[in-house]
Amino acid sequence: MLVRHADPARDAAACVAIYAPYVTGSSVSFEEDPPTAERFAAHIAATSERYPWLVLEAAGAVVGYAYATQHRARAAYRWAVDVGIYVDPSRHRAGAGRMLYEALLGLLRRQRLHSACAGITLPNEASIGLHRALGFEHVGTYRSIGWKAGGWRDVSWWQLRLAPDGGGADAPPPEPLGPQRL
Ligand SMILES: CC(C)(COP(=O)(O)OP(=O)(O)OC[C@H]1O[C@@H](n2cnc3c(N)ncnc32)[C@H](O)[C@@H]1OP(=O)(O)O)[C@@H](O)C(=O)NCCC(=O)NCCS
Fold first, then answer.
1. Does residue 169 have a pLDDT over 90?
2. What is the separation of C-alpha 78 from the centre of its chain, rounded to a whole number of angstroms?
3. DSSP single-letter state for residue 41
4. Is the CB of 98 within 6 Å of ligand 1?
5. pLDDT tens profile 28-59
6. Is 102 in the pocket of ligand 1 (CB under 6 A)?
């Protein structure tokens, strides 16, 4: 298995094929209509201008992907990102998620980012297990924050400190860097 940077034109359709069932058949994603490959390619390209979008390839096929996006737009949040990950169900529990996240988190550290955040619609034992295994801590749960698949859904939020706190008024953290290469 090989982790590499996504190529928007080449990988969008495979990423959509993995993602779409979680849009139409579950509340894992809060989107309601699966994106087209064209729209997803644009989304991958725009994301990759600032953050990593990685795919995991096995025997020449994309079997999972992980990415980071801006957490919030206000300036003080610029060291924080949200992360997301999807693995083809035929490959679950075989180490794909861990491989993707270890590569992604390494790149985020090299970008000098401080926090990775993940919002997990409940229930999702696999996602909670993965985030806990990678060192994320539970910080709280929004109750009934979204309506999806016929019901109100809770979203559990998890945070990983990518670097120790530190600094101070006279020693602000170094500015984040642009996207890094594997
Ligand atoms: C969550 C997801 C990405 C995990 O990917 P994966 O490739 O199956 O995970 P891994 O095999 O690398 O597992 C790594 C660790 O995560 C934890 N984990 C993974 N699946 C788990 C499960 N079903 N239950 C409990 N813990 C689990 C375990 O600690 C595991 O380590 P171990 O196998 O040595 O015990 C995958 O289940 C998935 O794509 N789910 C659907 C999409 C989704 O929910 N994405 C996250 C949205 S917030």
1. no
2. 16
3. H
4. yes
5. 999 999 999 999 999 999 999 999 999 999 99
6. no
95 lines ligand 1 (CB under 6 A): yes
DSSP 34: P
CB 65 within 8 A of CB 53: yes
Q: Is 125 near ligand 1, meaning CB less than 6 Å away?
A: yes
- CA 55/CA 67 separation, integer angstroms: 9
φ and ψ of 83, to 5 deg: -125, 155
pTM tops 0.90, yes or no: yes
User: Residue 125 contacts by C-beta under 8 Å, 6 or more apart in sequence?
Assistant: none
Residue with CA at minimum distance from ligand 1 atom 1: 127
Task: Report pLDDT digits (tens) over 131-144.
Answer: 999 999 999 999 99
Rounded Cα gap, residues 94 and 120, in angstroms: 21
CATH number for domain 2-161, candidates 3.40.630.30, 3.40.50.10140, 3.10.20.30, 3.40.50.150: 3.40.630.30
| Ligand 1 midpoint to CA 157 (Å) | 16
Q: Which residue has the tokens 């201008």?
A: 49
List the beta bridge partners of residue 3: 56
